[in-house]
Amino acid sequence: MKTIYLDTCVWNALAKLTLPDGAIEQTPASEIVISRHVVYELAKTHEKDPEFASQLFKTATRLFDSGAKIINEPFNILIEEMKLIRDGQAIDFLFPNRRDFRAEMVRLQDGTTDQVTEFIASKLRDAETDKNRIAEHLSAISEERQFLSELPESSLNDWITKELLNIGSLRRLLEKLIALFPEEPTPDLLEWAQVLLRSPECKVTQGLLRTDLYYNWRCAKTDRNVAAKDLLPDTYHVINALYCSAYVTSESKQRKYLELLGLKSNQFYIWDGVERIDMWLKSVSDRLEIDGSRNA
Q1: Which of 14, 25, 45, 143 could form a disulfide with 53 if both were Cys (CB 3.0 to 4.6 A apart)?
Q2: Structural domain for 203, as ranges
Q3: What is the 3-state secondary structure (H, E, C) of the chain?
Q4: What's the domain count of the chain?
């Protein structure tokens, strides 16, 4: 199954394409993936440009009705990965409730719903909490901050890979598992956490921890222990796309950290903004099919 995750900028391009002629017929709709994070970012458009926001959600609904899929939330996928380790159950990374998801997108054609308004507010609160937590952590542990501030980017991937297997990452993951599985004995969760950290199938578990480590490094490179405000949203897109065949964006700057978070280079496609976006997405789909045939 081919799945293509679209960054927010690509959704914007699709919506603009539909404005003059309604032409998105080349888009491989059944392979397109949308996430709650994308809905959140598109919904913010209502604050500045309600008319274009309405067009965004009309486009998203049209593609959804043509078969576009919904990616599950990262922590729900982490639960799926846990079930793989614990029960041998296959990972399902797609969100099953299409009816409610579609109804929300239809409502968002006319304006934000109370649920999405709260979702936006909660995302902003989470981002602020994460920013403050990391800044306080790095301020309190000056030795670690000094090390990270001097760590060159060329050594970053090796450092993150090594850190994933140390006691600090194990402790952070165990805390997440205790919150998600409060009924399970802690010794069992500790054992499963060790397997999750070493299993190549558990992409989101490792991607979330890789994101924490990368963000720490970026923060340590600044005077205030705070990274650029768009970094966390961008990395969240990457986490959402880890199980997809392709992640597409027009922002080439993202290339420098995609692989650090676990996305393979052959999953990453950059739209140059010149070719018509629906036809370009069709070409991405064709390339995925060719690559899949070669690897079969």
Answers
A1: 45
A2: 4-295
A3: CCCEEECHHHHHHHHHHHHHHCCCCCCCHHHEEECHHHHHHHHHHHHCCHHHHHHHHHHHHHHHHCCCEEECCHHHHHHHHHHHHHHCCCCCCECCCHHHHHHHHHHCCCCCCHHHHHHHHHHHHHHHHHHHHHHHHHHHCHHHHHHHHHCCHHHHHHHHHHHCCCHHHHHHHHHHHHHHCCCCCHHHHHHHHHHHHHCCCCHHHHHHHHHHHHHHHHHHCCCCCCCCCCHHHHHHHHHHHCCCCEEEECCHHHHHHHHHHCCCHHHEEECCCCCCHHHHHHHHHHHHHHHHHHHC
A4: 1
